[in-house]
Write a structure and sequence with these properties.
Order of helices and strands of chain A: EEEHEEHHHEHEHEEHEHEEHEHH
Strand content of chain A: 25-35%
Number of helices of chain A: 11
Oligomer: heterodimer
Number of helices of chain B: 11
Strand order of the largest sheet of chain A: 5-6-7-3-8-9
Number of domains of chain A: 2
Shape of chain B: globular
Largest sheet of chain B: none
CATH class of the largest domain in chain A: Alpha Beta
Radius of gyration of chain B: 26 Å
CATH topology of the largest domain in chain A: Rossmann fold
Order of helices and strands of chain B: HHHHHHHHHHH
Distance between the termini of chain A: 60 Å
Largest interface: A-B, 82 and 70 residues
Largest sheet of chain A: 6 strands, mixed
CATH architecture of the largest domain in chain A: 3-Layer(aba) Sandwich
Strand content of chain B: under 5%
Distance between the termini of chain B: 33 Å
């Protein structure tokens, strides 16, 4: 359990975390979501006591992180895969961390096996790819077998195998009853990993919601195409809330795929495509954060272009 | 707060090969119960009590491992050792082969011990560098974040690092100083030069060499914590211990006479010089150590205050 109470952190005139209050529960994977600069990493740094908050506090297992006698046995964190001296062997990096928390060498071998780095344990960390660096960081996080695991963008730089491995790992950690907080700026990744979402924008809490509720709050649509598009359009029009052309197909809102298929079947129409579209989760996330994106690419408004041409 | 647990989005993954063994050796023995039924360390489930002394000892062990597992730090240790032995040997050979008759005012002890410590001024830079990079290497590489996550009590970390640096420098330079003494004796004896020295003074010079260089390394670590920059910290060590005392020439004579013995060059050298002139060997060492203590405490204060 991570309890964050009224946490605020300012760097100069920028407020990175703004009166954030949220509790991260055990037993589920909590996705920590927000655009770049939303304060996700800063919050994690504050939890670990790397940075000092301007107000508020963060408690792990009921106390501030630094008050734990053997903190690696309380919280395992991956903040930055590059937080390793490039000249030190992977196994030595883990040994030094283990030694400081009274963790035996057997556990070092175990986590190296666990993350798949046993064969390169004696290589210098500087020779590792970004993905291997991430695995080493995850090994360090798991060293103390902690009840709380906090990973900042763990799938960065991982290959598809690695990404699936991280998803499974997070799932199994949560199933064991641990508190799992994993950050990302990608809703699509979170939709696959997380049970619960904590969404930040400009350091403020935008949403603290289960993934199921988030999905339920968004209306998806069905993409459907037939050999006779006009007949399909008139068939679906009275049943759907909205039917709009979507390239060669139709975007149908307010109907399920099965209902569409039945109607088409009964009318003798041949469907060549029938796809439930879940992009709405991404859209809901974007709607939620659109006012809080710190760095936005300038997209010229068409009306501006017209007036400029005139 | 109320919270509904959403259905798992990756249900097949549970219990996969990625599942860590909870009963493994070296894993929190005090957290009782199955984690599935008693999740997360709550109130009342406490880790074994670890006092500050244990915490510092463990941090020191971890830091010692760090110094020994990097090529750069090992190289600095080696350079310090080689400087002491090789320069002592050169000096001894020089005394044997010189044409002029030996200076009659020099005793055998002066010749033997003088040659033995002739590498200290060079080893000084290696020891200072070791103390500096043991700290600044963490900041340059980002390791400091892993380190502080493992040892969040910053005073404990600074103390542990200082102990590790002192252990490495003291042990290695003590060995090197003994080797230097033995080498000097062998070379002088083979050249027919008398090598008899007072055992107490000899021991003080050998041990003093190692102590002096350990304190130099601590000053380096202190500046490392203060400045985070390798170049800045090394320049500061040289500035405080070498350049600043040289500026004492600018002081008016009566003031300089009073101040000189307490400046870091004179006070620092007293403990390894065969015949210290301006200040007693152990008083000098205490003064020198005080310089290191001030720098190290300032560094510790900075680390406690700053974000990482």
């Amino acid at each position: 359990m991570i309890e964050i109470r009224d946490l605020t952190k300012r760097y100069g005139s920028t407020t990175a975390v703004d009166h954030l209050t949220v509790t991260i529960a055990p037993g589920v994977v909590t996705g920590f979501l927000g655009p770049n600069g939303a304060g996700k990493s800063t919050t994690m740094r504050l939890v670990l006591g790397l940075d000092r908050p301007d107000s508020g506090q963060a408690l792990v297992g009921g106390r501030p992180y630094a008050r734990h006698e053997e903190p690696l046995r309380q919280v395992g964190a991956l903040l930055d895969a590059r937080a390793v001296h490039p000249g030190r062997r992977a196994v030595d990096h883990l040994r030094t961390l283990a030694a400081s928390n009274g963790i035996g060498p057997a556990r070092v071998r175990e986590v190296l096996e666990l993350v798949g780095l046993a064969d390169v344990a004696r290589s210098r960390a500087g020779t590792f790819s970004l993905g291997m660096g991430q695995r080493l960081g995850i090994a360090a996080a798991l060293l103390g077998d902690p009840p709380v695991v906090m990973l900042d963008e763990p799938v960065n730089g991982l290959d598809p195998d690695g990404i699936i491995w991280v998803r499974r790992l997070l799932r199994s950690l949560a199933d064991e009853g641990r508190t799992v907080l994993v950050s990302s700026h990608l809703m699509s990744e979170m939709a696959l990993i997380a049970d619960h979402l904590v969404i930040l924008g400009r350091g403020r809490l935008l949403a603290d919601v289960s993934l199921a509720d988030m999905i339920a709050s968004t209306s998806g649509h069905v993409r459907v195409a037939a050999t006779q598009p006009d007949a399909l359009h008139s068939l679906l029009r009275p049943h759907a809330t909205l039917v709009t052309p979507d390239g060669d197909a139709l975007a149908v809102t307010g109907m399920g795929t099965e209902q569409v298929a039945r109607l088409a079947h009964d009318a003798g129409l041949l469907l060549v495509e029938l796809t439930p579209v879940h992009a709405s989760l991404e859209e809901a996330y974007l709607r939620l954060t659109q006012h809080d994106v710190e760095y936005r690419a300038a997209v010229p408004d068409p009306t501006d272009l017209r007036s400029a041409a005139a | 707060m109320s919270r509904t647990t959403a259905p798992s989005v990756a249900p097949t993954a549970a219990g996969g090969p990625g599942r860590p063994a909870r009963t493994a050796a070296g894993v929190a023995p005090a957290r009782g119960g199955s984690p599935a039924t008693a999740p997360a360390a709550g109130h009342g489930v406490r880790p074994p009590a670890v006092g500050t002394v244990t915490a510092v000892r463990r941090a020191a062990r971890a830091e010692l491992l760090k110094v020994l597992t990097l090529r750069s730090t090992r190289a600095a240790v080696l350079v310090a050792m080689i400087s002491l032995v090789v320069l002592a040997a050169f000096m001894a050979v020089g005394s044997v082969v010189q044409e002029a008759p030996p200076d009659p005012s020099l005793s055998a002890a002066d010749v033997v011990l003088g040659a033995t410590v002739s590498g200290v001024t060079l080893a000084f830079y290696a020891a200072a560098t070791l103390g500096v990079i043991a700290v600044t290497g963490e900041y340059a590489s980002g390791t400091i974040r892993s380190t502080l996550a493992a040892v969040p009590r910053r005073g404990v970390l600074v103390a542990g690092k200082a102990l590790a640096v002192v252990t490495v420098v003291l042990a290695s330079t003590l060995v090197a100083a003994v080797l230097a003494l033995v080498t000097v004796r062998l070379v002088l004896a083979s050249g027919g030069v008398p090598t008899a020295t007072d055992p107490a003074v000899t021991a003080r010079v050998v041990v003093g060499t190692a102590l002096h260089l350990s304190v130099v390394a601590l000053v380096g670590s202190g500046f490392g914590w203060l400045l985070h920059s390798t170049a800045g910290a090394i320049a500061s060590v040289v500035g405080l211990l070498v350049v600043l005392p040289a500026l004492a020439f600018l002081l008016p004579r009566p003031v300089a006479d009073v101040v000189r013995p307490f400046l870091p060059d004179v006070a620092g050298a007293a403990v390894y010089q065969p015949v210290p002139d301006l200040i007693g060997p152990w008083t000098g060492f205490a003064v020198f150590a005080a310089y290191a203590a001030v720098v190290l405490l300032a560094g510790a204060a900075a680390v406690r205050r700053r974000d990482v």
